[in-house]
UniProtKB/TrEMBL annotation:
UniProt KW Cytoplasm keyword: yes
Name of the protein in question: UPF0291 protein lhv_1363
Organism: Lactobacillus helveticus (strain DPC 4571)
Organism placement in taxonomy: Bacteria, Bacillati, Bacillota, Bacilli, Lactobacillales
Subcellular location: Cytoplasm
Gene3D superfamilies for this protein: Helix hairpin bin
Methyltransferase found in the keyword field: no
GO cellular component: cytoplasm
Segments of skewed composition (Basic and acidic residues): 66-76
Biased composition range(s): Basic residues: 77-87
Keywords, ordered alphabetically: Cytoplasm
Length: 87
């Protein structure tokens, strides 16, 4: 797992809290402390999203309609580095 990626439980807690703060902001507004918390959680969420997206792309194997692998060399290098490829 990527060092920046959160567990599913932690990701859910962050997302739930972001949503909670969003609804409070819409209804009554946020205190400066809550606004700062919202910004930090949003940053944490984006860091996690980028890390897991990168990991998914690096682990992807692309096969064309003829059954030939056409995975990019960059992805292959990343997969070799992680020990996911034997070629």
């Amino acid at each position: 797992m990527n060092k920046d990626a959160m567990s599913k439980e932690e990701e859910k807690k962050v997302t739930d809290r972001i949503n909670e703060l969003y609804h409070k902001k819409e209804k009554e507004g946020l205190t400066p402390e809550e606004e700062q918390e919202r910004k930090e959680l949003h940053k944490k969420f984006l860091t996690n999203f980028r890390a897991t997206f990168k990991q998914d792309v690096e682990n992807m194997v692309i096969i064309d309609k003829n059954g030939k692998e056409v995975t990019s060399e960059r992805a292959k290098r990343a997969q070799r580095k992680k020990g996911l490829r034997k070629d």
